[in-house]
Amino acid sequence: MNKKLLILILVGIIVLGAAVFIISKNISPQNKIILFYGENCPFCQKVEDFIKENKIEEKVPFERKEVFNNEKNAQELVGKAQKCGLSAADIGVPFLWDGSKCFVGDTDIINFFKQKTGV
Q1: Which of the 8 DSSP states describes residue 14?
Q2: How does 103-119 read in b/e, with b if 16+ C-beta sit within 10 Å?
Q3: What is the mean pLDDT of the chain?
Q4: Domain map (residue ranges) of the chain
């Protein structure tokens, strides 16, 4: 095999590896958008309807976590709310964590997604 071609392939592999590393660092779990919701919550359903009708998941990556039936998710919600300085009385669903800020209630969350997507 030609030495120049071999060197070119090795450089390409190194550059590709560096790019994957940089991208993975920028998509860390801390920066992940999380939508906390409760099963049978009417305000959560309003957010879900908006997400579906406007194809938000195709535009903004986020994770859903149910809190009424999952204690681990509920504890995570409380932790995120505390980072925002919210008291227990201010915590409810739907609740969205954008990686640094908290959004509580259907209106604030829908406005967040509108702002992110230009809908």
Answers
A1: H
A2: bbbbeebbebbeeeeee
A3: 87
A4: 1-28, 32-117
Q: What share of the chain is helix, strand, coil (3-state, %, to 5)?
A: 60, 10, 30
Which residue is associated with the tokens 């190194």?
14
Tell me how far apart the alpha carbons of residues 108 and 75 are, in angstroms, rounded to a whole number.
22
Give the span between the Cα atoms of 101 and 106, in whole angstroms. 15
- For residue range 26-35, what is the model confidence (pLDDT) as tens digits? 444 557 999 9
| CATH number for the segment(s) 32-117 | 3.40.30.10
Name the token pair of 55: 């194809």
- Got the DSSP string for 85-108? T--GGG--SSEEE-SS-EEESHHH
pLDDT reported for residue 7: 73
What is the token pair recorded at 24? 């993975």
Q: Which of 26-30, 62-66, 89-93 shows the lowest mean pLDDT across its residues? A: 26-30
Q: Report residue 28 as tokens.
A: 């860390």
